């Protein structure tokens, strides 16, 4: 992985499995893993409470600061960073992602349905999680695709090992193309 621009950054819709994939990929290949949402919560409290108390705009500003800090921090130079689903919609975050290897984890509604049905911890999905998830993905898909260096097919209920191998192959191909 050393010849690729790092850190590797995972983007995609909420409940896609970015953190799960990032954790397993990092563990398998000896990289660090950091979830931007966990960093936000460690410093500012639960994300649903931030949304409720201060609104989405305030949360997005905090999120952009955290992403900037993570991408600039040399401790995360050899890391996999998972971003929240809305982070790439912020122009400042889009600018920050330039020059990094950005992996878009593509999923469909059937894949995320078990993860979002009845879930009350995702404020942007209320009151109808499945309908809102579809609407949000429709709004964000073009941005995810535009920012992606790699598009990874995470549809269906694939084993995590299969996704890790699929990402590794895509990164090897990217490295080969970069040196050709």
From TrEMBL:
Cofactor note: Binds 1 Mg(2+) ion per subunit.
Main location class: cytoplasm
This protein's pathway: Metabolic intermediate biosynthesis; chorismate biosynthesis; chorismate from D-erythrose 4-phosphate and phosphoenolpyruvate: step 5/7
Residues annotated to bind Mg(2+): 19
Keywords: Amino-acid biosynthesis, Aromatic amino acid biosynthesis, ATP-binding, Cytoplasm, Kinase, Magnesium, Metal-binding, Nucleotide-binding, Transferase
E.C. code: 2.7.1.71
Binding residues annotated for substrate, in chain numbering: 37, 60, 85, 140
Cellular localisation: Cytoplasm
Record GO terms (molecular function): shikimate kinase activity
Organism superkingdom: Bacteria
Record carries keyword Disulfide bond: no
Pfam hit, one: SKI
The keyword DNA repair is annotated on this UniProt entry: no
InterPro entries in the record: P-loop_NTPase (IPR027417), Shikimate/glucono_kinase (IPR031322), Shikimate_kinase/TSH1 (IPR000623)
Reactions mediated catalytically: shikimate + ATP = 3-phosphoshikimate + ADP + H(+)
Binding site for ATP: 15-20, 122, 158
CC cofactor: Mg(2+)
PANTHER family referenced in this protein's UniProt entry, alphabetically: SHIKIMATE KINASE, SHIKIMATE KINASE 1, CHLOROPLASTIC
Description of how the protein assembles with itself and partners: Monomer.
Homology family: Belongs to the shikimate kinase family.
Function, in words: Catalyzes the specific phosphorylation of the 3-hydroxyl group of shikimic acid using ATP as a cosubstrate.
This protein's name: Shikimate kinase
Source organism: Kocuria carniphila
């Amino acid at each position: 992985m050393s010849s690729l621009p790092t850190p590797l950054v995972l983007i995609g819709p909420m409940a896609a499995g970015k953190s799960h994939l990032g954790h397993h990929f990092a563990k398998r290949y000896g990289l660090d893993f950091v979830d931007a949402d966990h960093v936000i919560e460690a410093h500012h409290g639960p994300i649903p409470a931030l949304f409720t108390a201060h609104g989405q705009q305030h949360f997005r500003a905090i999120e952009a600061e955290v992403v900037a800090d993570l991408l600039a921090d040399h401790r995360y130079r050899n890391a996999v960073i998972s971003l929240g689903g809305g982070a790439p919609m912020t122009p400042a975050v889009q600018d920050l992602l330039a020059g990094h290897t950005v992996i878009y984890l593509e999923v469909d509604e059937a894949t995320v349905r078990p993860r979002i049905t009845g879930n009350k911890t995702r404020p942007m999905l209320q009151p109808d999680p499945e309908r809102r998830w579809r609407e949000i993905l429709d709004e964000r898909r073009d941005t995810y695709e535009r920012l992606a260096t790699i598009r990874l097919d995470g549809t269906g209920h694939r084993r995590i090992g299969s996704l890790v191998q699929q990402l590794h192959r895509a990164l090897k191909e990217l490295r080969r193309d970069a040196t050709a």
